């Protein structure tokens, strides 16, 4: 068992000792719906991991059954409604899937040119982020909790190299959320295609480019077999997943079970973040070995600056018309004033230092 696994088991053991015997005897049976199919690892592992930990911490008295998208067959944006309505007590998803219901929720996943994963967790737990998230989600009668981070998502697979802004004009690309709005401002024909159709659409030229996640999940889709250009990310620097919990169901739980559940969600968020990093690192190593012709690219500086300007325009536009969006937006910007200088000193400067001594 690795170090992370031992840490999680120790945490479970401590929590188990804290659960009163009376509460342990109470039987609770919940259902959790995932936005992913049961085979889409590592995302699909969150539900099973959570169910196992909660069961272990309550001697099997708190049972959570989980369903992948292939079983409940709900659209991505419908999962919030299913948890809100009580069809499922819990869900595991990403906030920007219901951008159409409430654009402010997108911040609780990520935003273009925004926080890194470490910065975002700092904001969640020490910068008022968790409190703002509960405030935003209260209108849906659900609680939302961090559910694991994918880290920096890649900028996408492109059939042709992007050398200037002109190369974006008329480009047909699958890219969702706020990033899609940004690219639309730059002349891209943005579309959203079901995951199962993406490979065929790219292969046949129905689309010219697409953004998915990162090497760990992209390699399973086979995009690297079609397109030679793989671009670094800008649009999703820290995509946080969410555990949604029906408010009425959670409030009915004994306090000890509430503690068990919230502690387990926090532990699984850590494990999911580590799993995503591991999957990406291993897959990128495999891609480089098997397909050395893949071109790892960074968008040209003029393109990046245009993306940033368009992103600011999109975000400022929403902030001007939506007070709640503005509150969260301003909170994140304020936290970055403190967080980003330290990120540069600690992470960026260290990597530059390590590069020097490794040459």
UniProtKB/TrEMBL annotation:
Keywords: Signal
Alphabetized Pfam families for the sequence: DctP (PF03480)
Signal peptide range in chain numbering: 1-23
Gene3D superfamilies: Bacterial extracellular solute-binding protein, family 7, Periplasmic binding protein-like II
InterPro entries noted in UniProt: DctP_fam, SBP_TakP-like, TRAP_DctP_sf
NCBIfam families to which the protein is assigned, alphabetical: TRAP_S1 (NF037995)
Protein name: ABC transporter substrate-binding protein
């Amino acid at each position: 068992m690795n170090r992370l696994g031992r840490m999680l088991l120790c945490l479970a053991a401590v929590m188990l000792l804290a659960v009163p015997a009376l509460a342990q005897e109470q039987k609770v049976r919940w259902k959790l719906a995932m936005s992913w199919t049961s085979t889409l690892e590592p995302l699909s592992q969150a539900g099973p991991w959570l169910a196992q930990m909660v069961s272990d911490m309550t001697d099997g008295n708190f049972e959570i059954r989980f369903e992948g998208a292939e079983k409940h067959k709900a659209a991505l944006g419908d999962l919030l409604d299913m948890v809100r309505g009580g069809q499922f007590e819990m869900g595991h998803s990403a906030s920007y899937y219901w951008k159409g219901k409430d654009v402010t929720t997108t911040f609780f996943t990520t935003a273009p040119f925004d926080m890194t994963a470490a910065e975002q967790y700092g904001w969640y737990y020490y910068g008022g982020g968790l409190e703002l998230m509960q405030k935003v989600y209260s209108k849906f009668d659900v609680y939302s909790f961090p559910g694991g981070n994918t880290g920096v998502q890649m900028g996408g697979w492109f059939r042709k190299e992007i050398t200037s802004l002109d190369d974006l004009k008329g480009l047909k690309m699958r890219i969702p959320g706020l990033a899609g709005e940004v690219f639309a401002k730059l002349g891209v024909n943005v579309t959203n295609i079901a995951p199962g159709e993406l490979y065929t659409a790219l292969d046949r030229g129905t689309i010219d480019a697409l953004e998915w996640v990162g090497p760990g999940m992209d390699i399973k889709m086979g995009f690297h077999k079609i397109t030679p250009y793989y671009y670094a990310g800008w649009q999703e620097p820290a995509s946080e997943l969410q555990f949604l919990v029906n408010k009425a169901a959670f409030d009915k739980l004994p306090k000890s079970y509430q503690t068990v559940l919230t502690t387990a969600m926090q532990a699984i968020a850590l494990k999911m973040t580590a799993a995503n990093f591991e999957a990406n690192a291993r897959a990128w190593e495999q891609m480089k070995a098997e397909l050395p012709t893949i071109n790892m690219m960074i968008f040209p500086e003029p393109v990046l600056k245009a993306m940033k300007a368009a992103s600011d325009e999109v975000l400022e536009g929403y902030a001007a018309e939506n007070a709640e969006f503005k509150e969260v937006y301003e909170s994140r910007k304020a936290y970055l004033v403190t967080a980003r200088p330290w990120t540069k000193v600690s992470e960026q400067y260290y990597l530059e230092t390590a590069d020097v001594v490794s040459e």
